[in-house]
Write a structure and sequence with these properties.
The structure is a single chain. The protein has 504 residues and is mainly alpha-helical. 68% of the residues lie in helices and 1% in strands. The chain has 27 helices and two strands. It has a two-stranded antiparallel sheet. The longest helix is centred in the N-terminal third of the chain and has 16 residues. The protein is globular. The two termini are 39 Å apart.
Length: 504
């Protein structure tokens, strides 16, 4: 008897322009916070993940799964598909795994598994397979197809297809989503704002708004993306004409447009209007004001806003401090920027990677290697892991100054602690190592990356291949070639012979 675990359900805020939040995500989050880690589950996830990566055919995959003895629960499938997604695993193998697990009697995929599988397929432009999956899931349990599913699929389609094709795909969802309503319409608009342009979102809004009833979130989605004050004002006025009352998110969007346009006079007028309408400004409101003051060259006045916030019972967060610190970094007043960082710490707030990147950017453009290295060590000592941008600033600086030891230290930390994008950073690292003829080091880093389930770029592989051929290291080259081949090994799905094409 297969255990049926709780499904994911989705809700959305009626007022904020934010992505849909999966309530089901809270369960594993709380488990991580308050419960002990389940080592057996993690081992099973790794076992299944390796089976998916190493299987060469549909039958091979099924036999390996059956002989593994692993219980394929909803939670395990969620974790396996998530790992496939972030490791850029073969989508055909993942799809066969999804179909195999879903055909068991009494078993239902979670909404999270469905959305993750669709994301994997969309990233590989396997759009026909997306609709096939949706058809099969609809026949078994339509409730797992949610507005978030609409957003996941449309986002991948919009990346490579036209606005017209994206809208056509949106209309197709009417046959799949149990409630094809304004929530789905909002998912389309959000996708267009993120993947296309605000002009496209505006045009689609005006075309389809009579088929749906625009709500507060609709306008907040549109308001949040405008860079033109005139366009933002137009939607703000239309919102009021339709009887939709602006909330703090609406006002924040308008203030942000004015601040980015350096029109601080209008921004302060909207701030006054908020208070008259009894909409209390929040930390996002003041953060926009701080950023706007920096753009007009008033970093000191922006710092004063941090103090004024407290008088209104609104306390600055890390993002607010980062905005003020950014202003001083732009003005190259690093002493004041570091003072604000110390103040932030004294208030119990921890600088994040964005905070450090503000300084890394200054040091990178001034070619200050020593200050960058000291800051990196300080960052690691405080337990704040760098993000991809931090790593790129550092690695590009190491390459510029040909500092191999520093580059290898950063790479070692990335591999050990799991931060940063291996693919992006490794390209710069391999350029450095190949330029200086450090073939042994390049090979070691290459293999470490593959062991993490990450595919080195074809450009980097070709560079290392040329050096190995020149050094007559044919055995090592053959080993690396076999490792690379793992990332595009064909697999036949559901008995089809023409779907085993290579996936790049």
């Amino acid at each position: 008897m297969i255990q049926i675990l709780p499904r994911y359900s989705y809700v959305q805020s009626p007022s904020r322009s934010i992505p849909l939040i999966a309530l089901g995500y809270l369960e594993p989050f709380l488990s991580r916070c308050f419960c002990t880690r389940n080592p057996q589950l993690e081992d099973d996830v790794q076992t299944v993940f390796q089976i998916i990566n190493s299987s060469s055919s549909s039958n091979d995959l099924k036999l390996s799964l059956k002989s593994s003895g692993v219980f394929l629960s909803d939670e395990l499938i969620d974790k396996v598909l998530k790992r496939v997604r972030f490791s850029h695993g073969n989508p055909l193998q993942a799809l066969e795994f999804f179909y195999y697990t879903g055909k068991r009697k009494g078993f239902f995929h979670s909404a999270f598994s469905l959305d993750t599988m669709l994301y994997i397929l969309g990233r590989s432009r396997m759009f026909e397979d997306i609709w096939n999956v949706l058809i099969e899931v609809r026949g078994k349990d339509q409730s797992v197809i949610t507005p978030r599913t609409v957003m996941v699929v449309l986002a991948r389609i919009a990346k490579v297809c036209s606005v017209r094709q994206t809208v056509e795909s949106f209309r197709k969802f009417k046959k799949f989503v149990p409630h094809f309503d304004t929530t789905c319409f909002n998912a389309l608009l959000r996708t267009l704002c993120q993947e296309k342009s605000m002009t496209d979102a505006r045009n689609v809004y005006h075309t389809l708004k009579h088929d749906f009833r625009p709500n507060l979130q609709t306008f907040n989605i549109l308001l949040s993306g405008w860079k033109s004050p005139e366009e933002a004002e137009g939607f703000f006025n239309e919102m009021r004409e339709m009887g939709v009352k602006p909330d703090v998110v609406s006002y924040n969007s308008l203030i942000d447009v004015y601040c980015k346009g350096r029109d601080m006079e209008k921004a302060y007028k909207v701030l006054d209007e908020m208070q008259r309408e009894e909409q209390s400004p929040d930390v996002i409101t003041y953060t926009s004001i701080i950023g706007g003051l920096g753009l007009i060259g008033q970093p000191d006045k922006a710092r004063d806003v941090l103090k004024e916030m407290k008088e209104y019972g609104c306390y600055p967060d890390v993002a607010a401090y980062n905005a003020a610190i950014r202003n001083f970094c732009i003005a190259k007043r690093l002493g004041d920027a570091y003072s604000l960082t110390d103040e932030m710490v004294s208030k119990g707030l921890s600088p994040n990677a964005t905070t450090y990147n503000l300084f890394f950017r200054v040091y990178y453009w001034s070619n200050d290697l020593q200050s960058s290295w000291n800051l990196y060590n300080r960052m690691m000592d405080t337990g704040c892991l760098p993000n991809t941008q931090s790593c790129m600033f550092l690695m590009r600086l190491f390459r510029r100054q040909e500092k191999v030891e520093m580059a290898l230290r950063l790479w070692s930390d990335m591999v050990e602690k799991g931060f940063g994008s291996y693919t992006l950073v490794s390209d710069v690292l391999f350029d450095l190592l190949c330029d200086l003829g450090k073939l042994a080091e390049a090979e070691k880093c290459f293999l470490e990356m593959i062991e993490k389930g990450q595919k080195p770029s074809n450009v980097s592989f070709r560079r290392i291949k040329v050096l190995m051929e020149l050094a007559s290291r044919h055995e090592a080259l053959e080993n690396l070639s076999e490792k690379m081949a793992m990332f595009w090994r064909p697999v036949q799905v559901r008995g089809s012979t023409d779907r085993g094409a290579r996936v790049r």
